[in-house]
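Task 17 of the worksheet. Students: predict the tertiary structure of the chain below and write it out as structure tokens. Keep your answer in the requested format; marks are given for formatting as well as content.
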Amino acid sequence: MTAVGEWLKQIILIVLLAAFTEWLLPTQSMQKYVRTVLGLAVIAAILQPLVPFFRGDWAERLAQSAVEQLTGAASSAAAPAVDVDSLQAQLRRQLSRRADDEAAALVQAAIDSELGIPGARVQVEGGLTPEQMRVAVVLPPAATGQTAAVRNLVARLLGVSADHVSVRAG
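Model answer:
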């Protein structure tokens, strides 16, 4: 909370400086220029907390800051790096699960709409990259003869090899 307080204090000081400087100027023509310059200074002060996000390592800094806020620990060289790595691994797993679920929903909808096979169950693993993706489709018993069509549709839709798609009637 002290960082926010310092930031607000800086903005207030710049605004007070702008008002005082404007009050001291004798002519209207100079006030326009001074207002412009001091207005830019106020905008720069307001945007100052966002500057670290424009640097290349903003994600790592944000993760480290989040770890420090959650644990309440002071930053040290070794401890946050381990926490950041575990957070990155956890985020990667969550992203992978989300990609798997989205790909499965897409395939399930395509099987229903394009092939007219409702009730197919689709499971996707490794959905972040086509090389690692494995797809398992269980068709309803009435669609036993359409396994090849389903395999080709899934392979075309997800951009994976047909060898990575297993289709069975269940």
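Marker's comment: The first helix runs from residue 2 to 24. The domain at 94-169 is CATH 3.30.300.30 (GMP Synthetase; Chain A, domain 3).
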